[in-house]
Backbone:
DNA sequence: AGCATGTGAGACGAAATTGTCTCAAACAAT
DNA sequence: ATTGTTTGAGACAATTTCGTCTCACATGCT
């Protein structure tokens, strides 16, 4: 069974999303290669996880640019910020869904190198949210870091919803955006 | 070092919140007892985790009653539902904070017996949210299960915020309630 | 003092996982 | 066809964790 490094990583991610604690042997089987071959591509389990996390972080970083988040933060333009916010959240859903296991894996979250990178990326988003607050796009009475953590939490909610089959995949983006921006109370309500 | 079963569990929970993958040896050390004694109280690691989860579920279930959630669901009374919603969310913060590691521990989430109990408790909340929707307290255009998952996600956000020190403990309840009900957009805004 | 109970330290084997290695078979390229 | 590369199967030692067990010691009670 031949497999490129890329195919291995994709299959590994897919399996880790179902069994976050899978062993190297289980991952090799899921990929369809032998344990020896898996070790030829990734010298250790840490190596593999590092590579997967690095890939996820790359996609995340690319999204921050492609969504216009970076540019909008710099421009402080309200319309640009609004477009970027929507694109960012929609993109985050995809990344978070693909690398879902990473959302709640403690070993990844506490890995020094990975934590540094994640903190750095998250910090950019905090700055972006702060800019959105100044533009009147997001409430100014909420800490920007809380907003950032809220988005993270809602991504976890999306993952849960999809895993349980509670909502259809095509609906999650709308639900996330809507809930994040307007909350769960009716518009006229003041609770 | 003498310790009651209760003290052991409390100390174990505390340590697991910092090191979710802690071994029995590490837990024993954190509790301040020997590994042998820990095994005298809990025959296996599974046994300990089961006991901890059971305790968490009990508190959760108690909260569903003490918050008035159960009664309000049955009564369909709008004011009662509103009071219950507030009390439930505030109580969930405490439970989720105390047993934070359980929010994202895959081994607990997939344990058949625990999953059954958690699903059962969550189902009650879904019914409650549905009642709140009928009473006009929550938006009717959101799936009740999505609302339930949203609350779960926001609890994860709370845990993250407290771990990182992003927000003060006394503020989290207000932030959670406020964000959950009204979202992150300014009231006049329509994004 | 004498006795019973609980505890800590540590040894022990069992099991799982990891990373390395060897060797034979399959494969690709020339 | 031959050569060089890659792969799979499996053996291997090292490590970790777990659950059990023994034994000495302390603590409390009568």
Residues:
């Amino acid at each position: 069974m031949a497999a490129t490094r890329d195919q291995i990583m994709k299959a590994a991610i897919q399996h880790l999303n179902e069994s976050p604690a899978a062993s190297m042997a289980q991952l090799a089987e899921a990929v369809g290669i032998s344990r020896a071959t898996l070790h030829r591509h990734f010298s250790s389990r840490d190596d593999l996880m590092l590579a997967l996390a690095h890939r996820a972080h790359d996609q995340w970083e690319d999204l921050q640019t492609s969504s216009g988040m970076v540019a909008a933060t710099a421009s402080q333009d309200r319309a640009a910020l609004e477009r970027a916010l929507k694109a960012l959240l929609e993109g985050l859903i995809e990344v978070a869904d693909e690398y879902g296991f990473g959302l709640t894996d403690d070993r990844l979250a506490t890995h020094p190198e990975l934590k540094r990178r994640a903190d750095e990326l998250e910090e950019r988003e905090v700055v972006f949210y702060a800019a959105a607050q100044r533009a009147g796009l997001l409430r100014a009475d909420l800490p920007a870091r809380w907003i950032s953590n809220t988005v993270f939490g809602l991504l976890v909610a999306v993952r849960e919803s999809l895993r349980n089959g509670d909502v259809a995949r095509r609906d999650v983006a709308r639900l996330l955006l809507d809930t994040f921006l307007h909350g769960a109370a009716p518009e006229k309500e003041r609770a």
Observations:
- DSSP finds eleven helices and no strands in chain A.
- The mean pLDDT of chain A is 96.
